[in-house]
Amino acid sequence: MKEDKTRRGSKVKKRHFYWWFGLGLLFFSSFYVDIWHTPNPISRALPVLTYHETSTLEIGRYQQISLDKSKIGDRYYSDKAPLPTFLTIPIYELSSSLGKDEWNYEKKPFVSAPTWYKRLSYIILLGSLLCAALPFALLIFMSFKISKEEFKWKPTLLVLGLFGTYVFVYSGTFFNHLLSGTCLALAVFFIQDPKRIWLSGLLCAMAFLTEYTLGLFAVLLPLFLIKRPHLWRNLLLFGLGLLPAMLIYAWYNYTLSGNPFTFVFYYTDFETFSEGIKQNYGFGWPSVESISGLLFSPYMGILWFFTPFVFYLIYCFKAGIQSQLKSPVLISSLALFALISAYFIWWGGYSWGPRYLIPMACIVALHAARIWEKKSLRLYGLIVLGIGFVIHLAAKSTVLFLIPDRLSEQGEASYPFSDVIWKALKQGNFNANNLFTWVFDLDPKLSAASFLVLFLIWITSLEWIYRRSHL
Asked: What is the dihedral of CA 323, 328, 330, 336, to 10 degrees?
C-alpha cells in the first residue's frame, strides 16, 4: 500500500515536472519574436499574403520589397523551400477568419503603416512562432524524453545545450533552419528504430521540403539500413515516408515553372547569387577557407557558436572513434558540414553564426544526453554553456542575427561580438521585439534583464523539481 502511494506520488511529481518544463520552453523560446522585414522572412511571408489577397503564390505586386525571389518568365515567386509557407497559410487564414489579420502594435514603424505592411508583420510573427519557436522548444523537450538515463544537471545541460548556443538566436525568427533541423534530427533518431523507419522517411521529407540542401539525407539515411535484416522492406518503408516530398516538389515546381525537376530557386532574381546558383545549384568542392571558416573562425566557427559539438567530439573519442564512425549522428553531422563547406555562399549572408549548419546542431542537440552521461564532462559543460547563454542572449536582445557579411556595404564583421554586439550593448540598442515590451510597454533593456532573471529562476526550479521526481 505504501509502495503504491509512493509510486503514485512519484508519477504526480513527474507530471508536474513535464508541465513546468514544457511551458517554460514555450515561454522562453517565444519571448523574442522577430517581425523585422528582412529578406528571409519577407520571402516566406509574401506568398502567405498574396494567397490571402489573390489566392495565388505569385508575389509580383510586392516583388520590389523582396530581395530573395525567383523570376520565371514575367512572374515573381519566393525562392524558398515551400513547407514553412504552406504551414503558415492555414494558420493565417484561420486567424483572419477570426478577425485578426494584421499587427496593430501602436509604435513606430506601425503607426500609419499601410494595411499590407501590418499584415506582413503579423504573418512573419505567426511564421516565427510556428516554424522556429515551436520546433526549438520541441527539440529540447524531445532530447530529454528520448534519454532513459537520469543524472544530476540533466535538464539544465539539455536546456543550455540550445539556449547556450547560437541556435537560440534563431528561435522566434521566420527562417527555415529550426523546422528543417528538428525534422532532420528526428529522422536521424528514428532511422535507428526498426519499427519507425517510415517515420524517418516522412520527417526526412519534411526537412527536404523546408530546406533544399537537406535532400542529401534522402540518399544518406537509407545507407544506414544496408546491414540490417529485411533491407528491401526497410527501404520501401523509408521510401513511402519520403514519397510526399517528391510529389509535392514535382507539383510545386511544375505549377510555378512548368518543369517538375527544376527547383524554383534556380531562377533566383538576386544578381549577386543568380550566376552561382546556375552552376550546380551553387555547389562545388569544399575549400580550405570554407572548412576553416565554418570550423574555427570567430566569424562563423561552429566550435565557438555551438560548443556542444566540441563536447560531442570528446565523447566520440572517449567512446571509441571507430565505433562512432558507424553512428548516424556523427556521419550525418559530418556529411552536412561537408555539403555546406562546398556551397558558394557557405557563410550564409547576414547571420549570427553558421546558420546553414543549424540542422547539424539540431542533430547533436537531440542526442546530447549521451554526452552528459559522462560525469567528467558535466561541470565543464555547465561553465561553457552558461557563458554561451550570456553571449547569445546579448545577441538575441540587441541585433538578433543581423551581423554584416562580406557582401554588405559595411564589410564582414570578422569578430561579431566585439564588432557588433558589444557596441550595441554599450549604445543601449536593445531589441524591442519581445513579449514584455509589446504587452507592458517595458523598456527593451529591462525586458532583457527580466528575461535573464526569469530564466535563471525557471532553470533553478526545474532542476530542483527534477531531482525530487526523477533521482
From this structure: 150
